[in-house]
Specification:
The protein is α/β, with parallel strands linked by helices. It is 27% helix and 32% strand.
């Protein structure tokens, strides 16, 4: 299957110019001026921008949280992304407390299976990491899941203690993985919330028309 895009203004990460693009079997095979060749489909892109598909590196499809879940699943979310020119997402899979890292990723593969209409990858929200999890992390890195998110927030849900964070960072560093740290002090934040919820504040109404 060959598609020829003619007369477009091509915008890449480093260039901006007018040319034609030949796509063969879903891959760009040639870019050049005034390409003349047989194609199954010819698109006239005169007056239009031709840009690479966007990548959204932070999405949450079917993420359960706080007694509800995010509104989009892998079909509705990726369909909306495609309409907006985004052709790849990196979603956050979740390792729930007490389960293996591999199980968390498998669960998200099942959510996406047969639904996603664009390319996708995963980060892994990591909630447990003992030394025994290191081979699992290395396996995931070898399979292309190279980033792991740990939280210092959300006690009882995602929060990891310092030892867990240290073990995960050390293991990721051995294999070239990346740890993304949600660095809020969740325990202290909860105490501050409780303090302010217990307070009552007097309110005074001011007529702004009287301010000169």
């Amino acid at each position: 299957m060959k598609t020829l895009i003619k007369n477009g203004r091509i915008v890449t990460a480093v260039d901006d110019y007018h040319a034609d693009i030949l796509i063969e079997d879903g891959e760009v095979s040639l870019i050049g001026k005034m390409l003349e060749m047989e194609a199954d489909k010819v698109i006239d892109a005169s007056g239009k921008l031709v840009i690479p598909g966007g990548i959204d590196p932070h999405t949450h499809m079917e993420l359960p949280f706080g007694g509800t879940s995010s509104s989009d699943d892998f079909f509705t979310g990726t369909r909306a992304a495609a309409f907006g020119g985004t052709t790849t997402i990196i979603d956050f899979a979740v390792q729930n407390k007490g389960e293996s890292m591999l199980k968390g990723v498998d669960t998200w593969h099942q959510k996406a299976q047969g639904k996603a209409v664009i390319d996708y990858g995963f980060h892994l929200i990591t909630t447990d990491f003992e030394d025994s999890h290191k081979p699992e992390m290395f396996k995931l890195i070898d399979e292309g899941i190279t980033s792991f998110k740990l939280f210092m927030a959300y006690p009882g849900v995602f929060l990891s203690d310092d030892a867990t964070i240290y073990r995960a960072m050390s293991a990721a560093g051995e294999r070239g993985g990346l740890v993304c740290m949600h660095a809020e002090n969740g325990i202290v934040i909860n105490e501050i919330i409780k303090k302010f919820k217990d307070c009552s504040f007097p309110f005074t109404t001011i007529d702004i028309r009287s301010i000169k």
